[in-house]
Amino acid sequence: MDFLTLPEGPVTLKNLTAPGCLLGQQGDLVSLDLSIAEGHLTDAAGQAVDMAGAMVFPAFVDMHTHLDKGHIWPRAPNPDGSFDGALRTVAADRSERWSADDLAARMDFALRCAYAHGTRAIRTHLDSIPPQDEISWLVFKEIRQAWKDRIALQAACLVGCDSVGRDTGFPHTADLVAEAGGILGMVAYPVPDIDARVRLFLTLAKDRGLEADFHVDETLDPSSETLRVIAEAVLETGFEAPVTVGHLCSLSAQAPERAASTMDLVAEAGLNVVSLPMCNLYLQDRQDGTPRMRGITLVHELKARGVNVSFASDNTRDPFYAYGDLDMIEVMREATRIGHLDHAGTDWARSFTTNPAAACGFAPPRLAPGASADLVICRARNWTELFARPQADRIVIRAGVQIDRTLPDYAELDHLMRTQ
């Protein structure tokens, strides 16, 4: 239950607390009042409600998810928690179970979770190895239309870099992506001709007017340097559309001088970086014994170079991450703990709101008159209160209306989870 039920009609929420960086102000947390009328923030005063210092955020942007994989864990658990185990398990489940009906039911379930938690925009990756590409992109277009008034949706195709070639099915997949208004995506890892494959990928994207989104170096092997290849290719080809790179785990395992020179290239190329700390903490350095490395990329060092750094959910209840619920407050809480954001400046809140919106081209979040009243309000009055509890009683306001935050019951998916 939400900690407060707001009155209907024009209302002024007094004595709220917000990160100053989201208001264009210096410092950490600031006090403010917000008035809501006819679905928007406004200058006109309404019925006053004392919010007692409750923290407010603009509704969140989750820029790296996998809606097509979501919630398959009960029928396809990772056998050993490893990255290879996740790859094998997902591949088998995809080939056997990912019909249009299966995808639509699981994707809608996940979106209802995200909506209840306060997310307004999502970019998902879609496994697009033929013939799955034909199925998944059709389903995505239907889901995007059905959800257009609640969550803005984007999709990027996902194939291994080994599948990128003129004589493979990838050009057809790229055409499907273009027809759907999507983003061209691939997983980049060290193969002998990775440079040529990245450049071909960028050519295919440019020819279709598409942005690019890469999974990059999702390993703690320091010799994995496809991030460097991508940055150099973007610079040398003059690729102008936005480019996003996610994971970058190997960067944290490299010698400081080598990592620094790669990050300089990332900054020069203007790449957007998204870190996925929960999934990477789950998969990376899993071994016989205690893990010693976190897997998170060098977010502080990238941010210091002016790189646009964001955080996102990544996988949800699938072999790549057994947990999660597309809850960006959980992502913010865990990223703060895992990445030690708490003593590193006062503007990290942008990495869950403003930065991902800019990277993806979603409407920028604003807490100012004229903006849509899309808000997440927590009883917590400061950071330690916010991160100490899951904020299960938060208020979510969309277009000025306080929504029902009841989460869907996992039992809804039971009929899809029966093993064959």
Describe the structure.
By secondary structure, this protein is of the alpha/beta class. It has 2 domains: about 10-60 and about 365-400, Roll (Urease, subunit C, domain 1), CATH 2.30.40.10; about 60-360, Alpha-Beta Barrel (TIM Barrel). Helix content is about 35%, strand content about 20%. It is built from 13 helices and 16 strands. The protein has helices at about 85-95, 100-115, 130-145, 170-180, 195-210, 225-235, 255-270, 275-285, 300-305, 330-340, 355-360, 385-390, 415, and strands at about 10-20, 30-35, 40, 45-50, 55-60, 60-65, 120-125, 150-160, 185-190, 210-215, 245, 270-275, 310, 375-380, 395-400, 400. The strands form 4 sheets. Strands 9-10-11-12-13 form a 5-stranded parallel β-sheet, sandwiched between helices. A 4-stranded mixed β-sheet has the order 3-2-1-4, with no helix packed on it. Strands 5-14-15-16 form a 4-stranded antiparallel β-sheet, with no helix packed on it. The protein is globular, with a radius of gyration of 21 Å. The two termini are about 40 Å apart.
Q: Brief description of this entry?
A:
This protein is α/β, with parallel strands linked by helices and 420 residues long. It is built from 13 helices and 16 strands. The protein folds into 2 domains: 86 residues, Urease, subunit C, domain 1 (Roll); 301 residues, Metal-dependent hydrolases (TIM Barrel), CATH 3.20.20.
Topology, element by element:
Elements: E1 11-19, E2 29-37, E3 40-42, E4 47-50, E5 55-58, E6 60-65, H1 83-97, H2 100-117, E7 119-127, H3 132-147, E8 152-158, H4 170-179, E9 184-188, H5 194-208, E10 212-216, H6 226-237, E11 243-247, H7 256-269, E12 272-275, H8 277-283, H9 299-304, E13 308-311, H10 328-339, H11 354-360, E14 375-378, H12 383-388, E15 395-398, E16 401-402, H13 414-417
